[in-house]
Amino acid sequence: MTALKTCATRSERAPEMREMTDKDDSSKGAARPETKVVHLGRDPFDHHGFVNPPVYRGSTVLYKTLDAIKSRKQPYTYGRRATPTTRALEDAITDLEGGAVTILTSSGLGAVSTAMLAFVSAGDHILITDSAYQPGRAFADRMLKRLGVETTYYDPLAGADIAKLFRPNTRLVLVESPGSQTFEMQDIPAIAAAARARDIWVLADNTWATPLFCKPLALGADVSIQAATKYIVGHADAMLGAVTANARAARLLDHAKEALGTCPGSEETYLGLRGLRTLDVRLERHQKSALAVAEWLSSRPEVDRVLYPALPSDPGHTIWKRDYTGASGLFTAVLKPVSEQALAAFLDGLTLFGMGYSWGGYESLVIPFDPTSYRTATKWTGPGPALRFHIGLEAVEDLIRDLDAGFARLKAA
């Protein structure tokens, strides 16, 4: 069976390489996503029949002739720009996202910052959802502010009303749906339509859903961002980011990659390719287990509410059902008032839930958080502590037993 290939191209790719890729793409259109993640970005018979592409480590790429070095008519020119390893993952993600080009970065934050830098100039104004990933906010508040870019944070539930915040110099809107930690669902089509009418770029953080469960570009966004550290890598063992642009945004993104010198490590890219192969089956398990645990937590007397768009009780469920085909393993449970001592008793004694940042790996995690210190456009209200859970691949019965014992300790404390 011939492996599926993608039609993604990079500006530095030689014309003959682009033509060959386009020809080889004729059979991929009918494939379902679960098939694509297995086959995209690899061709075993380009590598002596080995099913996985090798790890290419290197900076220097040799040219055979003077004409070749002058014209750069070869698919690879320098290790920072691309290797067969990085291009394999770029092309696979481009196809899954339905974009024109993907660049890889060394982290999810690198993906967010590179994407924003690609579209702004001094004197610009940008809009960022108040529920955005906090390190992304810090980049805007510190670095972009120093560069003369002004940021306004907006209510994630604004929808089409975001147009009221547009200024003559508004350059981009950054959406994150669902919101980081607090899980507000944003109306991406409404925001994108309002922005497109004013020629404003829309960037969407798609880490929670991955391109298997949501395609922001199809919803109207110009750019889809992923912290590939999470579900793409999937094993909590590598840092990686990805930014995919549509055709009209591709050149600016490519220019940013070249100007900033962004590139991922060879080993990390390979781990991203490895993780991609099982993305569909892992997400299916994460979703099924997360829904079961979220429903169980919703029934607990100690819990005020669970924020998980896949739950019919969630305020964003209607948008999630309209625009998404699935949900991942990340959600928040807001507890009723409880002392710090009781919360420590609950968390410290958990045996299957680690306390640590990041998510998307095979293991279950939990962290307490309080967004009141950095939310500016909206106000966070919770009667008690908020806990962000990532439900891993363990048996649901074991996870619930661990949490049940934790609530017993909480009550005793």
From TrEMBL:
Basic and acidic residues: bias regions: 10-33
Keywords: Lyase, Pyridoxal phosphate
Positions of post-translational N6-(pyridoxal phosphate)lysine modification: K230
Listed InterPro entries: Cys/Met-Metab_PyrdxlP-dep_enz, Cys_b_lyase_bac, PyrdxlP-dep_Trfase, PyrdxlP-dep_Trfase_major, PyrdxlP-dep_Trfase_small
Reactions the enzyme catalyzes: L,L-cystathionine + H2O = L-homocysteine + pyruvate + NH4(+)
Cited PANTHER family: CYSTATHIONINE BETA-LYASE-RELATED
Cofactor(s) of this protein: pyridoxal 5'-phosphate
Designated name of the protein: Cystathionine beta-lyase
Renumbered residue ranges of the record's region Disordered: 1-33
Similarity comment text for this entry: Belongs to the trans-sulfuration enzymes family.
Record organism: Hyphomicrobium denitrificans 1NES1
An annotated Gene Ontology molecular function: cysteine-S-conjugate beta-lyase activity
GO biological process: L-cysteine catabolic process to pyruvate; transsulfuration
Record-linked Pfam families: Cys_Met_Meta_PP
